[in-house]
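JOB MANIFEST
job_type = single_chain_structure
chain_count = 1
residues = 621
[input]
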Amino acid sequence: MSWGCGLRYMFSMSPALQQGDMCILHDKEELSRLEMVQRLAKDGCRFLQNHSKGPERTSESDEAVRVHVRERGHDVSVPLRASSEQPAPSASARGGGREEARSRRYMVVSGTPEKILEHLLNDLMVDDEQGMTQGKESDTLLDDFLLTYPVFMSTSDLCQALLGHYCTKRHRRKEDRKEALERKRKVLHLVSHWVALCKDFLRNDDHVKLFLKSLYRFVLDDIFEHPALEDNGRELQKLYQLHRRHALEEYSPHRKSKALFHQMSLKENELHVRGTQRETKEVLCHVYVTMNSYLSMRAHAGVVVEDLLQAVADRMDVPRGELELVAVTYPGGRLLLQPRDRLLADSLHPVGRLHVCRKEPGEVLKPLTDNSELQHRTARMLNLNTWDVAVALTDFDWTIFDSIHEQELVYFTFSRHSCSSSTAALELLLQRCNDVQLWVMTEVLLCPALCKRVQLIKKFIKIASHCKAQRNLSCFFAIILGLNTAAVSRLNQTWEKIPGKFKKLFSELEAITDPSLNHKAYRDSFRKMKAPKIPFLPLLLKDMTFIHEGNKTFHDNVVNFEKLHMIADTVRLIRQCQTDHMGNGITQKSSSEVRACIDYLLIIDNQETLFELSHRLEPRV
């Protein structure tokens, strides 16, 4: 293969090669995407190839070649040669040397967002009979891009780039029309994967709505020239829930725009769906019953004061008519909430710190109870079956974890403060993990009798063991950490009364939480567990942070896609943990009495108060 003066290909050869000379690439150095090379040559681009080894290599698998694509004096793409793991079919199978070129393909190392997207589309292969065909490497590249694109480009920019790749000047020659059809099918294939993977984040994005309208209009226009796009159009119609009554064949080129606008506007439908989705979202409400103690309770996003007060009254065994709810705002203001007031803003955050108080004249904020009264309410835990408690905890956590999307970890790591609405489920499970840890401490430190406190610690050790057996490592970690906190571990008289077999079990469970060797014990134990399972998310976020802080996102103003691959590889653990290929269900039934206790955890969140309770139980000698 050779070409002329538009391209300068520099590698280990005589420096006498000048611009305008012919350069012949032999089979060993032949690029996998010759179309891209020819097009870039016309634009005055040049390639720089660096060999990590000498010119004499005995095996194709030993090569490590980076090719720097430059435009206007700046690198725009750095692909790395990688031999495909899949054996290439015979040349007669799909157009001769095309598969042979694919076996010597290039993978993205870094590049501008536009060039990464271009490489991704070029990497997709179209089979006329079977549709899109991809290898393992292409699947991974596509998944990496869709999971991490918010790091280096906005959703609006991605929509514009995809429309740009789809919409090109119409060609009349047969070969050009075939290439145009192939490119359009690749774009539609990518969009289908994008919507299927990220639909929760795209649902209310105005840029995406406009993009889908435009893309669907273009597909309708192109069906007359490319009938093969009809299946893609139907898939698009199915994905975006368009009305079936507007069939593709009913539109002519002169009536499409008005009909399409009517078909896709659906304003009333969208408002109804959006409202319904908000109502079904769940949050964890902290309702304070003293200045330092609160009930952690799950509520839907549309909860009103009356419903929340009824739940608190049931949990605290207090008549509903005696209670009122007060919101304490940041500057110190107090607002008495009415029964039908909504508690959560659109951001799913409460209107202020929520305090429940008794209805008494002259007292705007009188605590419902105090810590001395709470001590008499902890005996309920001693009557509950430990397996049932573990089941209720796991059911609660799984409901939240199963709704977490992999991309939430990306938003949390790279733009935690600006995208809180995109990380709601992730933050909910992190909050729940913290609540369970505080709940363990609160239950133990509010138990005044030594014998009952010993029984309570034994129960928590068994609950932690059951959570591990139920593959809920989030709750398992929280319970062990709660028992290991200074305020509980200092209770020497209590721990001395714990039977030897429980101490041994606790030591075994505690060893799994050992942070040495980068939490090797936990990672080994978690790796052996079957899916579905709930990981300890703080450790996963720690891994994400180390990757983020230890690697640059941009190198010389081009995206470091190697870093993004590491990020995507880490967040895919969420998908693997949520998948239940073998039918190893994680949810079980628990009694209503246990759920009533677990769904409304009584918590003291003040460390000084907890230490005060600890020293009151066992004074310092």
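[summary]
The radius of gyration is 31 Å.
The chain has 25 helices and 17 strands.
exit_status = 0
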